[in-house]
Queue: 3 jobs
Job 1
Amino acid sequence: MTIAPVQRTASLGSSAWTDARLIMALEEVVEKELNRHLKVAKDWMPHEFIPWSQGRDFDGVLGGEAWSVEQSKVTPLGRVSLVVNLLTEDNLPSYHHEIATMFGREGAWGTWVHRWTAEEGRHGIAIRDFLLATRAVDPNELERARMSHMSEGFESDNAHSMLHSVAYVAFQELATRISHRNTGHHAGDPLCDQLLAKIANDENLHMVFYRNLLKAALEIAPDQAMRAIADVVTNFRMPGHGIPGFERAAAQIAIGGVYNLRIHHDDVLQPVLRHLKVMEVSGLGPDGLRAQDELGVFLGGLDAQATKFDERQAALLARRAARQAAR
Ligand SMILES: [Fe+2]
Ligand SMILES: [Fe+2]
């Protein structure tokens, strides 16, 4: 694959890579990755995954039965994680705005932006249908949280730079995949697990798209791409960080083993970084080398922090188990 080789000349320097030029230079890669995505992404029908027979009217307008917690077999951890995952999916209009503004709505980039939006739209629809049909969460609380979360909107930390945006979504799609998959495993309902596995599969294909794009960016603008990766990895925040009560939910999700520092380091950061061979990229200028060093130091520190978290988690779970046994 040849990407505008003339732009790699030293005389242009990394500062010559404006967002507009990068978007043009990567168009060919976007087209190739879009075609690959369309070939491997299998269409699926969200309604087939919802056990509609478990559904019934709620109280209020139709005078049905009010929600109460014992109506669902979903675990407390599953409930918290499902709400965070769904509210994260719900802010799709903001995400669409971010990427349509950054990547444009023309050509292969535009086709990707719209296709991605359509696939993501399916996730929110399917999870909400599932939660309401199975009475897994309080529907009033869920709706109030959706209104509050979407009214705030989402603003990317990376809107200043196209490469930072690509680097962020490469990690974020994998983070979302892992979060859905682990939520399914802890949900206590095999049908929920089945739905979330399907959604996690979509997120994985999104990650592959952006990861491959980032790989091409590392080839054509290595210094700037390395800086973007280092900045994104060292400042990573989940897109749902603005959800009401997020800190408390995130703590429960961490202790419960759905998403925590260890998982973030081992299952999200490392697989992408290893695939990109980020620590082995050679031929970097001073800026790129500095970014690569920062990344190495940060990852070492994160691994150590994750080990401390593992120990705290094990101790807490042991205390919980002992309390349970004493009852
Ligand atoms: Fe999604
Ligand atoms: Fe996704």
Job 2
Amino acid sequence: MTLLECINGPEDLKGLSQDQLTLLAVEIRDLLIETTTRTSGHLGPNLGVVELTIALHRVFDSPKDRIVFDTGHQAYVHKLLTGRVAQFGTLRQRGGLTGYPSQAESEHDLVENSHASTSLSYADGLAKAYKLRGEPDRTVVAVIGDGALTGGMAWEALNNIAAAKDSRLVMIVNDNGWSYQPTIGGLAEHLAAIRVNPRYEHVLEYIKTTLPRAPLVGPPLYGTLHRVKKGIKDVLQPQVMFEDLGLKYVGPIDGHDERLLEHALRRARDFGGPVLLHVITKKGFGYPEAEQNEIDCLHQVPAAGAVPGTWSRVFGDEMVSIGARRPDVVAITAAMLYPTGLAQFSAAYPDRVYDVGIAEQHAMTSAAGLAMGGLHPVVAIYSTFLNRAFDQTLMDVALHKLPVTIVLDRAGVTGPDGASHHGMWDGSIMQLVPGMRIAAPRDAKRVAELLNEAVEVSDGPTVVRFPKGKVGGEVEAVGRLGGMDVLCEPADGLGADVLLVGAGPMALTGLDVADRLAVHGIGVTVVDPRWTKPLDEALVGAARQHRLVAVVEDNGRVGGFGDAVARLLRDHDVDMPVKTFGLPQEFLSHGTRDEILDEAGMTPQHLARQITEAVARRASGDVDDAAAAPERRPVE
Ligand SMILES: Cc1ncc(C[n+]2csc(CCOP(=O)(O)OP(=O)(O)O)c2C)c(N)n1
């Protein structure tokens, strides 16, 4: 039995010797590597926080004290130290452990959202709540990476935390110099000053020798830390920035020296007010393959990069061609140059790419500025992160009718990253935006075609959305209906029973459904709308020629393309049943894309069955009596 297997909770850590802790760190790293290379997952970030997480669980008393991991992708070590070693092999598998903290898994987990830069706000609120509820012995700890610290929310939180002088709050900045790629921006340069300074070693030595002499509790301690800090101030300046915000800064601390970390954490805990602890770690620490990986320190395995054959790569390749023709086209990424497929564009036109950090809101309004300045920005982000920038899209871009193209990768079900990563909201929230045009390519050829159409639009914003993973085979249209592609007509001898409108790759699913329905004698016309907003009025006439309309989209069912089609037909007094198929409006958990689509009833088999039943009901005039005539009761 390994030492790690004997750890059933943080209390089992408390009695371990320093040698045992060193062995434990080795065992944790081995398990992280072995598991993530098999199941996929965030390897580099977790290798970097092994000592930090051990120290956190030895110093703080979780779950009484609350540890909030920003983004949560680096919480695997925390999972291992809080009783989940035995299940760790199920990481990110359907029914297994999630890749982020999960309340259902453990009382030690609190924040499940994996969108970055939120931890300080949660921590601010928690600390204030504990104070108001009279629970003064609880400390809140937030662990935030230097990447997540580039997000605006983190700075809004810092501003508030600085004013909450008696909040029992420890902020740990886990500074490894990397997001997915090296963290960019003024803040990053500021923090980097410490890491690259040749006198860093001396600073660490100075802290190591000075801290143990600090008094044990309260402000006098801070006084000492403060003097330590002032002592190094002439050498290194990064703390000044936090100090100027009114925050107590301690650091830099070597984040792979467990003993030193414990020491600093105990003192931060006992200070009694907000303290910011600056910890320097190495992403991928202890695994040379990760440490030396130049692209992303194995941030994620397998890499989230735009490998050939993926939707992201098709987009990236087309951007390079567009860039050659259109010097006004520029690209924006929010810290995800490789995963979004912009790496080649960046290599070809380095002056025309802006990596703004994990700052989707800024990305969008900065895009508005670029467009106002005469350029055509393409903002490439994952669908789920567009949520962050809704107001900026609505009021900063759309209100001004600006030519900004938003390219949404990972639209629809994504898979193993779970509820906060499924791109199932954009199709609905973008429907709300006046003047927005939304394209949904069904295959690689249509990505290129629709992206080109989108960047040609000069009087308002456009969206191009496509899913995660490999792009399937190409399917040519057999006809055209308005601006839409007809992919198949009812088979010979069959009537025009169903008009099936499939958005994006769901049009190809529609072809499979049509084949299955033909076996049952049901004739189907499959249409790919290409643009899901604005709606093509040709849909109205086409609907009138059929007996039922079915709309399929890889997006939440509420307020998406399906609802828009139903509204269009209602507005034109088309008396026609419209079946809308999409994802249930729920927080869908993790699993493979196929598993989740299957559960949501979005496979050709499920769809064919549901449509067959609807056609049969329509033919027999059968309606659900209970739904049609709800029981009436007198008002009491
Ligand atoms: C709002 C938002 N945008 C983008 C991402 C994608 N993302 C996940 S982790 C990460 C980098 C995080 O860097 P950092 O906070 O420094 O942590 P590290 O991985 O270096 O430990 C990014 C950009 C996200 N989770 N949330």
Job 3
Amino acid sequence: MSQNISKIMKILAKHFDYKKRTTLNRMRIKPNSFRILISCLLSLRARDVNTEKVSKKLFAIADTPEKISKLTLKKLEKIIFSSGHYRKKAKTLKSVSNDLIKRFNSKVPDNKQELLSIKGIGPKTANIVLAFTFGKSVLPIDIHCHRIPNRIGWIKTKTPEQTETQLEKILAKKYWNEFNGIFVLFGKTICQPVSPWCSKCPIKKHCKRIGVKRSR
Ligand code: SF4
């Protein structure tokens, strides 16, 4: 199993230049914890290109908890309108900013327990902040990172939380840093949810294709 994992990680790392290709990964180069946190919240159920556009627009107007807190909800909704689910996201951005000001002296905490104590921050966002900002060894698990290891046959889990726990056991630490970036790109471009592109998949011969009923 561990040989199979190493082989697959090496093939995928060669195939996907993940450092340049997602907004959040590009932000790792000069990490700013608040910006990464806010962009991650904006990226939920949004296309990457939108996240980048909306983040830039927002940070040009407000790039600190204080500045976001001072914006009216209406104004904030207008700024982030094109990110989708803008009403819910505007509320979350305001409440997270207010919480950071009140409880954490406007600083983004560098540990999971405190991050998860802030309403609106879930395990994936917390791990993105910890890994991308503070360089911690954690595995941010989104829907692609959950689906693909189950399809390949590495694990058999029902929730992203279970996937995180299982992957922590079987994935060597040296791959943790790149895992999220690679699997997000892989899931968006090849191993897509409904009908994956198995015919052009670089790891086809190593994959058990569990649960795949239709493919291209
Ligand atoms: S072979 Fe198909 S199911 Fe397996 S990883 Fe590749 S695209 Fe996904």
